[in-house]
Amino acid sequence: CLQHDQTWLSARLNKSFAEVGPTILPHHGPCFRCYETRLESNKDSWNAPYFLDPQPSTLIIPPVTTELFSRLTAEYVSLEVIKLLTNAHPMTLGGVLFLDFVTGVNT
Question: Rounded distance, CA 97 to CA 91, Å?
């Protein structure tokens, strides 16, 4: 994103857990590689997100539910893009939104 001077937003989904963000603005904060490096170097000092856990999950999610979680994640991404385009402050600018669709805990 820095080489092409493009704004970029990451989103990941693993079973019932999603990570939306960070939103990367070229030349206005760290790049995604910096984010991943910092996340990796600090994962022992906090509860790493479920999708980063190398342990295989025993949670079985039906395909219909997986599609719903994908759509919900896409809705969060869409809201962040709309905020960015309308000069509102996206939650993922300088941060990451962690979503747990089973428990409803969002951080």
Answer: 7
